Amino acid sequence: MPEVVRSPTFSNARPCKRIVTQRHLEHFHHGPLFAEILGILRAGNEAVRGKKLTDAVHESAEVQALLAIVDQIHALVEETPRDTDSASVSRFGNPAFRTLHDKICHASDRLMEGIPGLAGPEHARARQELAVYLQESWGNAKRIDYGSGMELNFLCWLLGLVKLGILDLARDAEALVLRVFWKYVGVMRIIQATYWLEPAGSHGVWGLDDYHFLPFLWGAAQLMDHPYLRPKSIHDPEIVAECAPAYMYFSCSQSINAVKTESLRWHSPMLDDISSVRTWNKVNQGMVKMYRAEVLLKLPIAQHIFFGDLLSFGPWDEDEGDIVEDEHGHRFAADTSHTPCHTEGQAAGWGDCCGIPIPSAFAAAELKANDRVVRRIPFD
């Protein structure tokens, strides 16, 4: 479980990315932060087992403050319309998202002052440390994309609040997942649909979802003790529609089906394969293993994790040499060749980090609904 830091000390340095090579990744793997991330993940897992989104949940003053922050970020979305001049036939990210991201960055300190225990100048440095994770939770402003790495930043933001003793997992874990995290996912769905965010490093059809991972993991935990719902139930549209308001797993399945054509078997074969597992317990166990291997221990994702005084990388005595960062936030050794791996549009090829840029499925669905003709891509 995450360790509470009773008297945290902060340097003047902002949290930064530290993972560049496989050796850095191994160091992270065996360090305390890796275990703490898994700790908050499992705490949430246990807290929501057998619980519905519609169940009554205790909300502490701290949890209510986090919900207010997500609501205020939603309000920023509402006041930041899409750039209609750019939304012609392009299905890639809308540049108005950069305006929204700037607003979130400028408001983050003010927003976090509303959290009990973080108000006042004496906590300014703690807010600055946590602001990096909050700001990076909503997508990347340079690439106009979003993926499981940004979702991980939101988890790290919550973890930082736990380590400061502001959140108590024994008291708050259930509300953090069923209220705070789920409200965050709801706002992210609006952002993805409004600004047509590209899926960051998408596995395409060979992933769970273009953007999210944790709703499936915690969603499977919700269903572990269910008397009759089974993983194969996601193939029944009536069951999905009935259960979506109460269960994250079914809600995510419904969202995928709403923006992608054809059947689940065609556009999401991994979810289709998982549906053949007999119990939700097995699904959940597999999701935890998959998150560990495919998110935390995948260099293309882990290289975007931020480390600071609160969420520390730990001692590192080796000479790192010169590390440079490109215009898209990717870090690499200056003495190694590095091909830019992400450019806007389909002219970009396979890269060593983010993979091929994938147009937004939300964009495809909206253009189709408005009878706009664009060139199809596979697995629309």
CATH level-1 class: Mainly Alpha
How much of the sequence is in beta strands? under 5%
| Rg (C-alpha, Å) | 20 Å
Largest sheet: 2 strands, antiparallel
Oligomer: single chain
CATH architecture level-2 label: Up-down Bundle
Q: How many β strands by DSSP? A: 6
Number of alpha- plus pi-helical segments? 15
Structural class from helices and strands?
mainly alpha
Give start-end ranges of low-pLDDT stretches: 338-353, 373-380
CA-CA gap between termini: 41 Å
CATH topology category name: Four Helix Bundle (Hemerythrin (Met), subunit A)
Structure description:
The chain is mainly alpha-helical. It has one domain (16-307): Up-down Bundle (Four Helix Bundle (Hemerythrin (Met), subunit A)), CATH 1.20.120. Helix content is 48%, strand content 4%. The protein has 15 helices and 6 strands. It has helices spanning 22-29, 32-47, 61-78, 96-112, 124-135, 148-163, 169-195, 214-222, 237-243, 248-259, 264-267, 269-274, 280-296, 299-302, 361-369; strands at residues 16-17, 145-146, 198-199, 306-307, 323-325, 331-333. The protein has a two-stranded antiparallel sheet with strand order 1-4. Strand 5 and strand 6 (331-333) form a beta hairpin. The termini are far apart. The model is unreliable at 338-353 and 373-380 (pLDDT under 50).
